[in-house]
Design brief:
By secondary structure, this protein is α/β, with parallel strands linked by helices. The chain has a single domain, classed as Metal-dependent hydrolases (TIM Barrel, Alpha-Beta Barrel), CATH 3.20.20.140. It is built from ten helices and eight strands. The protein has an eight-stranded parallel beta sheet. Strand 5, helix 5 and strand 6 form a beta-alpha-beta unit. Helix 3 packs parallel to helix 4 and helix 8 crosses helix 9.
């Protein structure tokens, strides 16, 4: 069975069909899907959706793309929501949090400072509650690493990893796992495919980031967690190993990255 460690199943692209997608994904062998929040306004939505099907769980956090409109009191609300969710077995991590220095408006000095302040405070929340983090690292690997060194949450995932091998190894040294998905299925994605082939298998987790980052055979249509088994098979092909080996490793790694999943999957 497979675990999708990052899927925005609450996104408007899924509409009222999210539960149907979860059911079809389960039939396809996806036994767990982690739904990260992106802003205060969808904390309740992801938590509610995670209770709508047995193969769903959730994380709470403020995405860097949502930081421009976020208020400081949203951080207080996140801390309160995390504290309350600690009794909910379907709550598994703090995320999606991180830094994005790809979008021009997020790179302006004031917004860059705000992103970093929000990220650091969310890392503190994760550390204080002993929770893993699901980190957004687009064009920001070194800066994310800087704050992970400072605050040190117990574990987590560098989502949609696309850095250097040196950066990958630094994330690993800090106790993080690396998320790979549809991007590695494109033959032109040479760097991502090299990383997926060469990095330690015990540090790789699988994800769809649905509805985004569709694999090559779906692009440009909407992605779905139903595609995860085929994405896993693509990783097996890149590494020259059996699909069962990838599935077993990814399962084990996902639980190591998000220990609260273990009770849900027992």
């Amino acid at each position: 069975m497979w675990i999708d460690t990052h899927c925005h199943l609450d996104a408007h692209e899924f509409g009222a069909g999210a539960q149907d997608v979860a059911a079809r994904s389960s039939q396809a062998g996806v036994s767990m899907i982690v739904i990260p929040a992106v802003e205060r306004g969808n904390f309740e939505a992801v938590a509610g959706l995670a209770h709508a099907a047995p193969n769903l769980s959730y994380a709470l956090g403020i995405h860097p793309i949502c930081v421009p409109q976020a208020k400081d009191e949203d951080l207080l609300a996140l801390r309160a929501a995390v504290e309350s969710a600690m009794t909910d077995p379907r709550f598994v991590a703090v995320g999606e949090i991180g830094l994005d220095f790809f979008i021009p408006r997020l790179c302006e000095p004031a917004m860059r400072d705000k992103q970093e302040r929000f990220f650091k405070e969310q890392l503190r929340i994760a550390r204080d509650f002993g929770l893993p983090v699901l980190t957004h690292v687009r064009r920001s690997q070194d800066q994310v690493l800087k704050y992970l060194r400072q605050v040190t949450p117990p574990c987590g995932i560098a989502h949609a990893f696309n850095g250097s091998e040196q950066q990958a190894n630094t994330f690993i040294k800090l106790g993080m796992h690396l998320g790979f998905g549809g991007a590695m299925t494109f033959t032109r994605a040479l760097q991502i495919r090299r990383l997926a082939s060469a990095l330690p298998l015990d540090r790789i987790v699988l994800e769809t980031d649905a509805p985004d980052i569709s694999p090559a055979w779906v692009h440009p249509a909407r992605n779905s967690p139903e595609q995860l088994p085929a994405i896993g098979a693509a990783l097996a092909g890149l590494r020259g190993i059996g699909e069962l080996d990838v599935r077993t490793a990814a399962w084990r790694n996902s639980i190591a990255a998000m220990p609260r999943l273990a009770a849900l999957l027992a």
